[in-house]
Hints:
Helices cover 35% and strands 23% of the residues. It is an alpha/beta fold and 256 residues long. It folds into 2 domains: 1-82 and 168-256, 3-Layer(aba) Sandwich (Rossmann fold); 93-166, no CATH class. Strand 9 (219-224) and strand 10 form a beta hairpin. Helix 3 crosses helix 4 and helix 3 (98-110) packs parallel to helix 5 (152-166). The longest helix is centred in the middle third of the chain and has 15 residues, at 152-166.
Amino acid sequence: xxxxxxxxxxxxIRFGGHVAVNNVSCTFNPGELTVIVGPNGAGKTTYFNLxxxxxxxxxxxxxxxxxxxxxxxxPSARARRGIGRAFQLTNLFPALSxxxxxxxxxxxxxxxxxxxxxxxxxxxxxxxxxxxYLEATKLADKAHMxxxxxxxxxxxxxxxxxxxxxxxxxxxxxEPTAGMSLDHTPDVLDLIGKLxxxxxxxxxxxxxxxxxxxxxxxxxxxxxxxxxxxxxAPDEVMQSQIVRDVYLGSSGxxxx
Length: 256
């Protein structure tokens, strides 16, 4: 059996007297897509922030690939170790073109750094690689538009393309379909579904739309009041009475 790609051990954070995430221990494996659900304020995004380093844990540890303790590392260092994070709000360079956004991500991953003022022609190989990710996300026809001018759905697709360009081992998506129209939602779900086909990758997804959960989840984790309430196969978790009472509602269809 392969070693875990990610482990959180007793992960806890306090803000004054409030415990936002309380002693959450989970193991995530390659080839697995885990959806993290829970009511508003359950600690889902905070848990993501602890894993990716946006927040320092009050207690607990984060490990990569079995025993690589990254608990003290900054977000940029964790990214270099293979954690790729997309946020609930798009995190792009709004004034740069779609192509330039992707090229910068390719440059960073290749070791060329974030060189804003270098000529594109100097990095033809990097530009060609960036074009590959635009084609994979169906954004090639928008390559020369600024990121700010894209419709919201295409901005979310661009953020997926940015993550793909970084080639992380672990993909983290925080409500990737938030604010998207029904027309654009399937495009992003298809992209994540294709990422899931690579069994060397681990995907963590915070989501509240149960249609998305059903379409993608291999496993569901439920957080409630910052604590781990349930962890298991989708059918098992969604049929659990305590989960239905706390989160899903009696019909199993309610969203947070």
